[in-house]
Amino acid sequence: MSSAIPDPSSDTPSPAGGPEPNRRQRASKPSEIIGGLVLVATPIGNAGDISSRALGLLATADIVACEDTRVTSKLFAVHGLKTPLWSYHEHNAAQQRPKLIKRLKDGETVALVSDAGMPTISDPGFKLINACVDEGIALTCIPGASAVTTALALSGLPTDRFFFQGFLPSKKTQRRKVLGEIGRIPGSLVVMESAKRLAAMLADAADILGPRACAVTRELTKRFEEVRRGTLGELAQHYDDSGPPKGEITLVIGPPGADETATTGEQVDALLREALVNSSVRDAAAEVAAMTGWPKRDVYQRALSIEKDTV
Does residue 271 carry a pLDDT above 90? Predict the structure, then answer.
């Protein structure tokens, strides 16, 4: 854990013979948007990965809205921050959002943070942003750490175009369906996954996407940071043999090669067999045709043949 960074506002002296300046008067440059919502990126692992500008804003805001007050309290303790915390997460957002909007409309400065990284990425913050836009409330952002861009930078895979998927469905059939949909995107894929599902997810990705290059990043910016590279199949075998790894995991899957722009017949058949487990021939064909771009009539004929062979 890095050493605490001094509170930027603590160096501002009181006027000679005058009262202690209030929080608004102590505000440094980042609070020049006084009276608005500020998105503030927080470290994804190492507490030192936060800018002085972010610390200044967090020290001078009226309140800080956060996913988990226990997590944000730890960061605040490291950096000596005392600003009141306001719980704002997926399960209470609908109730808390109007209260935050009222405070903002009253002229307060509210900082929005996530547990780690950039707020609004895989958290309910985007709904608060939309509400502020609708209400004409001032918005700005103090950028910083992000697991998405950090994983991309370390992966060694193409970064000129990428798609952020977030977490894939936990159920195998739905996971394979989504992999089929995003697999045709002409760019690298960034996926988050839990340790216990990692091997299964990689195996499904190898089946659907083939032997693409992949980088599994773990515990980014922390003491036991690790990047393991290989094909999807090689990595699936590794984690199946070694068991679930520890820590937070972000994967980067390389883009399709020139020979992968069209889904092969074998891939279509594999997707159909998965879909036919829970769907009729007609529904399975429609689903796979939408995923692969194949003509629905051709997929339907393949589905009929597969069903006939399995009877």
Answer: no
Q: Which residues pair with 110 in a beta bridge?
A: 37, 63
How far is 111 from 63, CA to CA, in rounded Å? Answer: 6
Distance from C-alpha of 109 to C-alpha of 170, rounded to nearest angstrom: 38
How far apart CA 183 and CA 232 sit, in angstroms, is: 13
Cα gap 300→295, rounded to integer Å: 9
Determine, yes or no, domain membership for 62.
yes
Chain centroid, CA 38 distance in Å: 19
List pLDDT tens digits, range 45-72. 999 999 999 999 999 999 999 999 999 9
Q: Which domain holds residue 123?
A: 8-145
Same domain, 248 and 135: no
As for how many domains the chain has, the answer is 3
269 inside domain: yes
Residue 198 in any domain: the answer is yes
Sign of CA dihedral 140, 146, 150, 155: negative
Contact by Cβ (8 Å): 105, 135: yes
Tell whether 141 and 155 lie within a shared domain: no
Assess if residue 206 is contained within a domain: yes
